[in-house]
Amino acid sequence: MTNTTVLYQHGTLALLVPGLLAGTLTMGELLQHGDTGIGTGEGLDGELIILDGTPYQVDSAGRVNVVADAFTLPFANSHFAAYKPLMTVIAATRSAVEKQILATAEQPNIFFSVKLTGTFTDVTTRAVAKSQPPYDSLAETARHQSIFKRKQVEGTLLSYYAPQLFDGVAVGGFHHHFLSADHDFGGHLLEFGQASGTVMIQTFATLEQHFPVADAAYQHHDFSQDNIMADLHQAEG
Amino acid sequence: MTNTTVLYQHGTLALLVPGLLAGTLTMGELLQHGDTGIGTGEGLDGELIILDGTPYQVDSAGRVNVVADAFTLPFANSHFAAYKPLMTVIAATRSAVEKQILATAEQPNIFFSVKLTGTFTDVTTRAVAKSQPPYDSLAETARHQSIFKRKQVEGTLLSYYAPQLFDGVAVGGFHHHFLSADHDFGGHLLEFGQASGTVMIQTFATLEQHFPVADAAYQHHDFSQDNIMADLHQAEG
User: Fold this and answer.
1) Could you report the per-residue pLDDT of A121-160, keeping only the tens digit for each?
2) Which NCBIfam families match (chains A, B) (predicted)?
3) Which of A8, A51, A176, A187 could join A47 via S-S bond, C-beta 3.0 to 4.6 A?
4) Closest chain B residue to the Cα of A163, Cα to Cα
5) ipTM given for this complex
6) Are A222 and B168 inside 8 Å of each other by CB?
7) Domain A6-236 listed as CATH 3.30.1330.80
8) CB contact, 8 Å: A78 with chain B?
């Protein structure tokens, strides 16, 4: 069943804040819900990006690995790709690209995905290093992240947009992951200088929000003691 | 396909705040996602409660009507019932019932439904009066609600619990609708004195959040100008 109007999400962004980082879904299961997606591994083991059914992991050493079906994740999104052309951008900054997408799509209150394929300058990405149980909080883990830079690179920016009401469930606004065309550079996108290429969009009628119901640590955690929004905006901003 | 681990939701609670009250889903469509549920009609036309596949509306005159498949709703929940016994309560206040459910279920971070069937004292419900386009905001509409009271009544309390992270998407915490056993009294529950009866629970692994994607007013609305949380807690508290 490949419903292209459904965005699947496992876990919530918020559960990363107190370090509920057990891998509660396998990549094999995630791929049943889509051929395109993003996520992170157990213990915040790198940055995942799924393109055309292949799950790539950018680890904290900057290596790009294809992960096995048994690889587990605490948080991930996937969907079946059915993108439509939205616009072309030429030497556009990240901020300009985001504004143009929102102005063109005019759909700030639903989830959608965009894929920008082209040439990027001054790309900065990050990948987090895997922590072991007892897991670090997101704020602690973020201190051990690696930063990677490329002056100019061809590649694909895969992004999800979430309405602000869902900030904390997902990243409110845009959440970008990047993979180079040569599959040798990528990660969670922090910034780029300028992008030139094609922007495709896919809108979703439904968010299929799946919870890690078998994970006792998640089920019993008291989130009221966490600074969810402050820590997320610090780490994902 | 009757997956009893899925809670379906159409619309968000937040969209009621600025008065985005067009009926964007039919009752017939809602019933395809469950035989049990709650909701409100177009223009906040009463309080809906679906039990065993029958959709009852408590209107602002206090009448209980069975609505047709063509009846439309801006916001609703439904699921296929597969409740399990949780506990028995005897002369328990609403606050005590809610605390006992949370203490017994120990699942504050996932969505679940409870059904309390028994005898209730001092029940207070409300039902909102339907507004016409251009629709009133939730705060304005709430001023025109009707309040109903019963000293003692047998009936069913149908409740959904949402994790606090989803406050605004749904009602964070418990959201209760009531229907009397005689089908002559009900609505959105504001308070009861004491309840004696059986509490059943059904937990959900997935929230299937569906958006009114065909509604231009929803798609283009600027929610950043609304006091979503303050108005919701005023109206739904």
Assistant:
1) 999 999 999 999 999 899 888 888 999 999 999 999 999 9
2) acetolac_decarb
3) A187
4) B223
5) 0.97
6) no
7) yes
8) no
